[in-house]
């Protein structure tokens, strides 16, 4: 305890030296937290872009639908089902859809595509579908018209006001065929969606497919992708095995793959950052030890044991580390909170490239507690490793050379 008190007093005998050391560690902590928060924010933005374009964070389906995408494998929109899903904590939207493949024809042109029945207002709240209508108008509730994806419209040579023929297989073997006017043309940021098919009001789709009150899926949106496992557990508690629950990871495996590979490169970048931080702190400690060489030699000469002196110096290093890490932790909280509320816009050519892929040209940050404690712990571990250096310097100190030095 005496050694700890002595170490604390020694820190403030030379405030300038202590301040330099503390600040070098502080900036390392701050930089690593900002980098970690930005990485998590970018991942969150990418996930949001995917789930809010089409899939949702979770899809509730018939147990057999994923293996056999047949309209007979549907779920019944019973009273209160969607309200029950919406009552779960962190669920912000639950949107019904009825999907089935169909032959889509205009004149002599025909192509197979997906006919998707949606609730126009709810779908727009989830995916912002309305903003992708580049020509014509969006659907209204009960609308008999359709929205058609751009590439499909181009292939069929269909324009606003033209009539499209849909032929499909309906519920329990029905053979629906009908005419639908084109209300709008959709221009999505991805080629896959631009060739997907047509959208129609869900009640119109139910009439067409002879599937009253049926849905092939409920797309669920959470307020944070990290809440998805908890929501899935709650769904299983509420509905047992009546339905199948697919998370965004299962619905978008290519995105998961990209994030995992990016995390791999991120580990390398962070390793480089920690090396820079470590050598920066080590350089400061080495400078401090060089300045105090004569002081330590005198203390040993007047009777202080080397082992006790080395403990005092070790305590000094660790105390400076604790102060710097705590300071970095405290300062980073309002900084990350501000950056989370005010993300950094990307302008110029890079911003245009982001927009072309349907992504907001913005660098996002995330206020995640794990980012703070992980980075702080890693930097503190680096300090503990570096603190071995001054300890060994004191143990190997040549008293006479130190006093002369």
* CA gyration radius, whole angstroms: 31 Å
Overall 3D form:
elongated
Q: Which range does the strand content fall in? A: 15-25%
- How many strand segments? 14
Question: How many domains?
Answer: 2
Largest sheet descriptor: 6 strands, mixed, barrel
Poorly predicted parts: none
The mean pLDDT is 85
Structural class: alpha+beta
Distance between the termini: 31 Å
Approximate helicity band = 55-70%
Query: H/E order of the elements?
Result: HHEEHEEHEEHEEHEHEEHEHHHHEHEHHH
Give a quick set of tags describing it.
alpha+beta; two-stranded antiparallel ribbon; 56% helix; 19% strand; elongated; 405 residues
Written account of the structure:
About 55% of the residues lie in helices and about 20% in strands. It is of the alpha+beta class. Helix 10 (about 255-290) runs parallel beside helix 14 (about 370-385). The radius of gyration is 31 Å and the shape is elongated.
């Amino acid at each position: 305890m005496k050694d700890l008190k002595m170490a604390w007093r020694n820190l403030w005998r030379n405030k300038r030296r202590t301040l330099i050391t503390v600040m070098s560690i502080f900036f390392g902590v701050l930089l690593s937290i900002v980098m970690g928060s930005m990485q998590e924010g970018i991942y969150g933005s990418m996930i949001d872009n995917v789930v809010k374009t089409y899939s949702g964070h979770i899809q509730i389906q018939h147990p057999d639908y994923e293996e056999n995408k047949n309209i007979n494998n549907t779920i019944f929109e019973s009273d209160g089902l969607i309200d029950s899903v919406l009552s779960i904590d962190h669920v912000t939207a639950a949107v019904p859809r009825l999907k089935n493949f169909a032959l889509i024809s205009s004149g002599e042109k025909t192509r197979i595509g997906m006919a998707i029945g949606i609730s126009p207002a709810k779908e727009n709240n989830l995916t912002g579908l309305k903003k992708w209508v580049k020509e014509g108008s969006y659907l209204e509730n009960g609308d008999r018209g359709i929205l058609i994806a751009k590439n499909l419209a181009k292939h069929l040579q269909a324009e606003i006001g033209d009539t499209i023929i849909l032929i499909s297989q309906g519920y329990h073997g029905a053979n629906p065929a009908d005419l639908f006017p084109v209300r709008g043309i959709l221009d999505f940021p991805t080629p896959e969606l631009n060739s997907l098919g047509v959208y129609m009001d869900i009640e119109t789709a139910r009439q067409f497919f002879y599937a009253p009150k049926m849905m092939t899926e409920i797309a669920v949106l959470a307020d944070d992708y990290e809440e998805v496992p908890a929501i899935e557990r709650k769904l299983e508690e509420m509905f047992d095995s009546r339905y199948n629950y697919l998370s965004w990871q299962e619905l978008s495996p290519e995105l998961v793959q990209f994030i995992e590979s990016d995390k791999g490169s991120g580990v390398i970048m962070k390793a480089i950052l920690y090396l820079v931080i470590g050598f920066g702190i080590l350089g400061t400690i080495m400078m401090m030890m060089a300045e105090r060489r004569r002081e330590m030699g005198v203390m040993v000469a007047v009777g202080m044991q080397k082992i006790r002196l080395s403990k005092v110096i070790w305590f000094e290093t660790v105390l400076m580390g604790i102060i710097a890490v705590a300071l970095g932790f405290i300062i980073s909280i309002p900084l990350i909170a501000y950056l989370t509320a005010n993300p950094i816009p990307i302008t110029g050519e890079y911003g245009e490239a982001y927009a072309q892929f349907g992504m907001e040209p913005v660098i996002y940050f995330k206020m995640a507690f794990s980012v703070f404690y992980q980075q702080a712990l890693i930097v503190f571990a680096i300090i503990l490793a570096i603190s071995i250096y001054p300890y060994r310097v004191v143990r190997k100190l040549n008293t006479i050379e130190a006093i002369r030095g």
